[in-house]
Amino acid sequence: MSSTRTGARRPYAARVPVAVRREQLLDAALTVIVRDGYDAVSIDAIAREAGVTRPVVYGVFDDLRDLLGTLLDRQQARALAQLADALPPVPDLSDPDRLVADTARRMIETVRADPMTWQPILLAPSSMPAQARARIEADRENFRIQLTGLLELGLALRGGPALDAEIVAHAILAVLEHFGRILLTDPDRFETDRLVATIAGLLQALK
User: Which domains are assigned to the chain?
Assistant: First the structure.
């Protein structure tokens, strides 16, 4: 006579390649962070989100710090690649207004296409770890420096106007980040063309 076991069964995690499982767990951790904040991140929370057990997580990462460090590396690489793509490979430095408008358009489209990467950056919660916050600020400063250099060259080639390129770069980045937050919190409120036209109008007013 056979016996029947009752009770809830533990979730079964199919065997998948380590690289695939790694990305699955990183995606799960990012989902928890975006939805619930950094304070809610734990091995248990990530395992539940991914539909696996704790041993599966520990089979890929040593601990939570290892997992979050790997996630930070991945997201930083993604954000930097997207920032690099936003700057044209062969910019027309004789027309800095067009350069800024085109860069703004690419950045807006990037945030629309990949909100999960940009929400922890543009809507960083107060509970964000200091390491993550420091990396974001360093990447932001690097982008400002690149934009400042392009503006300086463009203004010099065009013969003016006499603007402080560094301050203008700060202002442009602040506007782009504000637009990015709007795209994340209320994506249907403004069309891309309307946002880009506003930036172009502000640049015209500076002449």
Answer: 14-61 (1.10.10.60), 72-205 (1.10.357.10)
